[in-house]
């Protein structure tokens, strides 16, 4: 961080993304053209009694269609040092990265910093804010952003918001205008969208 501030730009805060840890393959990668050595993840050695960490009985809405937990991230049946499952420690990476980033920025700047993290855990709000991740430019996502923001207050993360106007997909004037009105009440309010989608600008047609 010190090198980046010295050589490029004296940032006051940082947005740390893809820190679930995210992955561009599902669970264990089987090939990597950029690496001379492929080291396979160790297989679990402890009994599960029929429990599959990648597909637990209470599935979450992962990727919008309840896919396995190891989709686009580290396999949740991977074993860490001491026999600890990734399933039980998954959010600790984002939490500890938030803590380290915040401490480093404040040590360098000698002032309060701003860190926004995609991966969080209850209590992360002492070190970082959060945004709700890559949402979609549709009415369903503007609706769900309200309970998302309120729920994170209960998790101890008060600085929270959603991508106003939606991240994925092209928005329209009505949706974007209404979302900007709602977004004014998010504790963390910002506009953000994907490369290749239509630009999102302040629109004047909504009364």
Q: How are the strands of the biggest sheet laid out side by side? A: 1-4-5-6
State the total count of DSSP E strands.
8
Helix percent band: 25-40%
Low-confidence stretches: none
Any idea how many domains? 3
For the biggest sheet, the summary is: 4 strands, parallel
Q: Which of globular, elongated, flat, extended, rod-shaped describes the shape?
A: globular
Classify the secondary structure makeup into a structural class. Answer: alpha/beta
Helix count, DSSP H or I runs of 4 or more residues: 5
Cα end-to-end separation:
44 Å
Q: Overall mean pLDDT score?
A: 84
Tell me the β content.
Answer: 5-15%
The whole-angstrom Rg is 19 Å
Order of helices and strands: HEEEHHEEHEEHE
GO molecular function, one term: alpha-1,4-glucosidase activity
Pfam families: Glyco_hydro_31_2nd
Keywords: Glycosidase, Hydrolase
Family: Belongs to the glycosyl hydrolase 31 family.
Describe the structure.
With 207 residues, the chain is of the alpha/beta class. The chain has helices spanning 2-7, 86-89, 92-109, 139-154, 173-183; strands at residues 13-16, 79-80, 84-85, 114-117, 129-131, 160-161, 163-164, 190-191. The strands form three sheets. Strands 1-4-5-6 form a four-stranded parallel β-sheet, covered by helices on one side. Strand 5 (129-131), helix 4 and strand 6 (160-161) form a beta-alpha-beta unit. The mean pLDDT is 84.
């Amino acid at each position: 961080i010190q090198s980046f501030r010295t050589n490029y730009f004296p940032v006051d805060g940082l947005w740390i993304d893809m820190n679930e840890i995210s992955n561009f393959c599902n669970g264990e990668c089987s090939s990597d053209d950029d690496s001379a050595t492929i080291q396979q993840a160790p297989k679990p050695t402890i009994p599960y009694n029929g429990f599959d960490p990648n597909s637990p009985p209470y599935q979450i809405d992962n990727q919008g269609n309840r896919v396995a937990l190891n989709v686009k991230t580290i396999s949740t049946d991977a074993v860490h040092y001491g026999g600890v499952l990734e399933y039980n420690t998954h959010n600790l990476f984002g939490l500890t990265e938030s803590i380290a980033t915040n401490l480093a920025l404040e040590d360098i700047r000698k002032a309060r910093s701003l860190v926004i993290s995609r991966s969080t855990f209850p209590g992360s709000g002492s070190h970082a804010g959060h945004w709700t991740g890559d949402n979609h430019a549709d009415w369903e996502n503007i609706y769900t952003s309200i309970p998302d923001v309120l729920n994170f207050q209960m998790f101890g993360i008060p600085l929270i918001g959603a991508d106003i106007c939606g991240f994925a997909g092209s928005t329209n004037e009505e949706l974007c205008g209404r979302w900007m009105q709602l977004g004014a009440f998010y504790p963390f309010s910002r506009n953000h969208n994907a490369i290749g989608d239509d630009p999102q600008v302040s629109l004047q047609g909504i009364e």
